[in-house]
From TrEMBL:
Swiss-Prot/TrEMBL keywords: Membrane, Transmembrane, Transmembrane helix
Transmembrane segments: 85-109, 129-155
Family of the protein in this entry: Belongs to the zinc-associated anti-sigma factor (ZAS) superfamily. Anti-sigma-W factor family.
InterPro entries: Anti_sigma_zinc_sf, Znf_put
Stated name of the protein: Anti-sigma-W factor RsiW
Domain Putative zinc-finger: residue ranges: 5-35
Presence of keyword tRNA processing: no
């Protein structure tokens, strides 16, 4: 079926064509028996659908049942607690932070690299101070041992008082 208008027949039946398109379809229908027959078939099907559709009636009380079913589904138990209201401000805040990071990215990178240099230098300074004074290192080790022993004794006492069954001391 080349050069036929079957794609336009539905629009023609529904009065959706412009005046020019409508005239072209009517001219084609006057000269083409295949398209005229297809239009006749489509009109028949349309009539049958409308007839069947209008003959269907809803059962008695159907409208009230639908309304009640909808009302049951929208009770406060089934309705969301409103947790979505927080979504928009959070998204807005994330967008703002992203924009700030993009705009300020080079400055933040410079600041971060400066802070890393400062931390690196502080570690070296403390290392040099501790490495040059053996008495400071020995004192810190001794203090650490005393803290570990005191902590274990206090934990032992707490466990005995609370009646911990796994303690065999």
């Amino acid at each position: 079926m080349s050069n036929h208008i079957e794609d336009q027949l539905s629009a023609y039946m529904d009065n959706e064509l412009s005046e020019t398109e409508r005239r072209q379809v009517e001219e084609h229908l006057d000269t083409c028996p295949e398209c005229s027959e297809l239009l006749s078939d489509l009109s028949g099907i349309r009539t049958q659908v409308f007839t069947v559709f209008h003959s269907i009636e809803a059962p008695e009380g159907f409208e009230n049942k639908v309304i009640n079913a909808i009302a049951l589904k929208t009770t406060p138990e089934n309705v969301s607690k409103g947790s979505n209201w927080l979504l928009f401000p959070v998204i807005g805040l994330l967008c703002f932070i992203t924009i700030v990071l993009v705009v300020m990215g080079s400055y933040l990178f410079k600041f971060g690299s400066i802070m890393l240099k400062v931390a690196y230098n502080l570690i070296h300074v403390f290392g040099d101070i501790l490495g040059s004074h053996t008495y400071i290192i020995a004192g810190l080790i001794g203090l650490s041992i005393v803290l570990i022993v005191a902590s274990s004794i206090s934990i032992k006492q707490v466990l005995k008082r609370s009646g911990f069954k796994g303690a065999n001391w």
